Amino acid sequence: MRRYSAFAIAREAMRHHSGWDRAWRSPAPKARYDAIIVGAGGHGLATAYYLGKNHGIRNVAVIEKGWLGGGNTGRNTTIIRSNYLQDPSAAIYEKARSLYETLSQDLNYNIMFSPRGVMMLAQTEHEIRGYQRTAHANALQGVATEYISPRRVKELCPIINIDGPRYPVLGALWQPRGGTARHDAVAWGYARACSDMGMDIIQQTEVTGVRREGGRVVGVDTTRGTIACDKLGIVVAGHSGVMAERAGFRLPIESVALQALVSEPIKPVMDVVVMANTVHGYMSQSDKGEMVIGGGADGYNNYTQRGSFHHVEETVRALVETFPMISRLKMLRWWGGIVDMTGDRSPIISKTPVDGVFVNCGWGTGGFKAIPGSGWAMAELMAKGQSPLADAFSLDRFREGRFIDESVAAGVAH
Amino acid sequence: MLTLTCPYCGIAACETELAPGGEAHLKRFGPGSSDDDFEGYLFLRPNVKGVHFERWRHAMGCGKWFLAARCTATLEVFGTYSAQTPEPTAEIIAAIRAKRPDWSLT
Ligand SMILES: Cc1cc2nc3c(=O)[nH]c(=O)nc-3n(C[C@H](O)[C@H](O)[C@H](O)COP(=O)(O)OP(=O)(O)OC[C@H]3O[C@@H](n4cnc5c(N)ncnc54)[C@H](O)[C@@H]3O)c2cc1C
Ligand SMILES: [Zn+2]
Q: Rounded to two decimals, what is the model's pTM?
């Protein structure tokens, strides 16, 4: 692989950009792999990457039914933070956030990580107590966050209206090293690095069945024939229930639609991410100048990747009250993704009832921020059968009542 | 926008008037049942992409719970029916079959 660098740009500028390689190969599937990952979203690609980089397992295929990064990874609002309440969450989300800090260098691909700071507004007495508690928990976990005053909120984000009539801003939980990254670039960067290690990324190919012998996985059926494998990682987000069914088990997951929208681009007006959980909306400004807006998830099972209009109305109403200056912006694009929700709003990274089959799912409305840490943990689990970061997120926590309750930390979908 | 007809008051209600209540026809397992049954009842869901039986409440209307059969892949509604039935009724199964001849209740 030719490395990307300032020198490479200069060189290519001199010769009409004729020397750029394809970022990844598109090979035909081999008959057998040591490990197959189903789903080329961020989590699947990161799993493959760390299998190769950390554990030397490189005879790996990532099989994707659509195009890589075309699922939730390419549909999210790119908020990265690690200010969760419970210790296992703080551990894996902070691992991910810290890997994001150097991911561009690690992958030799500019993922545009921008630690511009994330603030979660407290707009009720209950939220004040909740966020102060989270700030204390984060201090003990070694995650740098702080509870800040309304005045500081206004300093950090001048366009905010802190004394709205219904829900004035009473304070905020502030994570200065949270922020955003370019979502497509995360998928593309991992894909390029995987391909460079000799892994096969097979797009436009659906995994339609899981072959088992004596309770152990031996391969998968796909729309391009049967492929043998020793280990299988199912990393398909919204389609986890469908894939689990094909592997012969059920998951504690339900799939619902989550939507987002962006405005026309305007000059820079805010350089932080603001989340308002009580009124249910959040907003940041992309490098192109678009205001990136997200809200709540639908409450019913849905696989259509479409939003519903009344949710947009609800979200926009909340944000216009919080940021009055956006009231005349035109909205440019609007889309939905199918998110995989667990009862405790925490993910699953686990072995399954089928030997050799592992699942990584349940990231629901908030897994973009977790991609590097999740891939790291999933790769370790698949390679060694055990991973300290993943332990608490095993499937049997539901059976055993060991929930990792993050329904408060993830009060709004993000 | 999703529209379901409340089987009690007959109103065609849009989703803002309704509250979703998750999968219908769950078989309840209580104290004394096996861990497997209890886990299945509380947490494990088929989460189908296709015909789905589910609970809804006419929250902003008559307030009553009812059941609906709906396709999660297309949002097509096959019908709604009374919540006082432990399994899908013959009529709703016929309504689904009329539109999905290959479908069968598993
Ligand atoms: C509108 C929206 C906003 C969001 N905002 C944020 C945010 O601000 N911050 C944040 O941290 N998270 C956010 N999220 C959540 C985040 O996007 C997801 O948690 C994350 O992207 C999941 O990544 P993934 O790799 O697990 O899944 P995906 O990117 O969905 O990848 C799964 C892939 O599996 C493929 N697949 C499925 N079935 C099969 C099969 N049978 N065979 C082959 N391939 C298959 C799919 O085509 C898909 O490409 C948001 C999500 C949405 C929808
Ligand atoms: Zn009614």
A: 0.96
